[in-house]
Design brief:
The chain is α+β, with helices and mostly antiparallel strands and 236 residues long. The chain has 7 helices and 12 strands. Keywords: Acyltransferase, Cytoplasm, Transferase.
């Protein structure tokens, strides 16, 4: 029996069980609702995230495969380790959230458009303002050259997007996030969908069921507030 797309009510933040997500397109669970902070946090706590193009209705996804990493197990190649030892680039947390999400929204060379619409940017800026969304920045002196942003749920960090304007800058941001989050007993970083870039850094393909089990275990863990204070990250 084929599965049907759920239409969300604008009056509450209920989400259907992710097991009901569609097979084609794979992982699509629901349509509609809004991008309020309450609804977004409810979604992330259930392994659901929004992804849609500008002009489309809001689409909510929970793919059957999930790309995740234990931050303590980030993989650093020999060439990247050498780069880290010699680079003059610096890495910070929460110094430039708006600039990072704006940079992530610029379409890649292979893309005609971006899914990070003005509505998405505004929604995640609100999450940042309440201390739920965070950015990692890579700087070449005073110039922002790479970074990433995402949402923190307990001891789980749900990565949303990353960018680079210099070679290795996004890798540096990801490795810095892993090392820093691990120091604060972070357990899982959710990368949503696997790419060769993420796989090279040690990200593995997990099942949605296993990810939901991990999320249930860790989403109520308390991460020290100082984890997300504005600060510089020193890489090991």
């Amino acid at each position: 029996m084929s599965k049907q797309l759920f239409v969300l009510s604008p009056d509450d933040v209920y989400f259907p069980d992710p097991i009901n997500s569609m097979e084609d397109p794979e992982g699509l669970l629901a349509i509609g609702g809004d991008l309020s902070t309450t609804r977004l946090l409810q979604a992330y706590q259930q392994a659901i995230f929004p992804w849609f193009s500008e002009g489309e209705p809001i689409l909510w996804w929970s793919p059957i495969e999930r790309a995740v990493i234990n931050p303590a197990q980030v993989r650093i190649s020999k060439s990247m380790a050498k780069f880290i030892r010699h680079t003059s680039l610096t890495v910070t947390i929460n110094h430039a959230f708006t600039e990072v999400i704006n940079a992530c929204a610029i379409p890649r060379k292979t893309q005609a458009e971006t899914w990070i619409s003005p509505a998405i940017k505004n929604a995640y800026k609100k999450l940042h303002k309440i201390g739920a969304a965070h950015s990692v920045e890579v700087w070449d002196k005073e110039i922002l050259v790479g970074g990433l942003y995402g949402v923190n749920i307990g001891s789980v960090f749900c990565g949303e997007s990353m960018f680079h304007q210099q070679t290795n800058a996004s890798k540096l941001a990801f490795i810095a996030l892993c090392q820093h989050f691990s120091r604060y007993q972070g357990q899982i970083i959710d990368c949503q969908m696997m790419t060769p870039h993420l796989e090279s850094l040690g990200v593995v393909a997990n099942t949605r069921d296993d990810f939901i089990e991990q999320l249930t275990q860790y989403k109520n863990s308390i991460t020290a507030k100082s984890c997300w204070d504005k600060q510089k990250i020193t890489l090991l």
